[in-house]
Amino acid sequence: MAYITETTHSKSGAGSNLLADAIGGIGNLFSNIVRYRSYAKAEAQLLSMTDRQLDDLGIVRGDIRAKVWANYNRS
Predict the structure, then answer these.
(1) What is this structure's pTM?
(2) The dihedral of CA 8, 12, 18, 20: what is its sign?
(3) What are the tens digits of pLDDT across the range 40-54?
(4) 30-35, long-range: CB within 8 Å, 24+ apart, which pairs?
(5) Cα angle vertex 10, ends 9, 13, to 5°?
(6) Chain centroid to CA 61: how far?
(7) What would you report as the CA-atom Rg of the chain, rounded to the nearest whole angstrom?
(8) How far is CA 72 from CA 1, 2, 29, 34, 45, in A?
(9) Domain residue ranges in the chain
(10) pLDDT recorded at residue 8
(11) HSE, side-chain direction, 13 A CA sphere, residue 34
(12) Three-state secondary structure of the chain
């Protein structure tokens, strides 16, 4: 049985994968920075609240950091 295979060679070759990986890495870095800043902003907003406001939310001031950052590494 005969068959035909077609191969194509790209001039960019492995370099294009390297470039794509670098661009993807920069994109991941940017999204991680944005995500970090949103968590930090949430923490700052909670820390700026009065104890009464935090009590209304069911949060103790000493637990703010742990509650805000609990899911940071899971995403």
Answers:
(1) 0.67
(2) negative
(3) 999 999 999 999 999
(4) 35/72, 35/75
(5) 110
(6) 26
(7) 24
(8) 57, 56, 15, 12, 17
(9) 27-74
(10) 57
(11) 6
(12) CCCCCCCCCCCCHHHHHHHHHHHHHHHHHHHHHHHHHHHHHHHHHHHCCCHHHHHHHCCCHHHHHHHHHCCHHHC
Tokens linked to 69 = 């950052």
Cα end-to-end span (Å), the chain:
51
Contact 3, 28 (CB under 8 A): no
State which amino acid sits at residue 69.
W
Q: What are the tokens at 10?
A: 């790209």
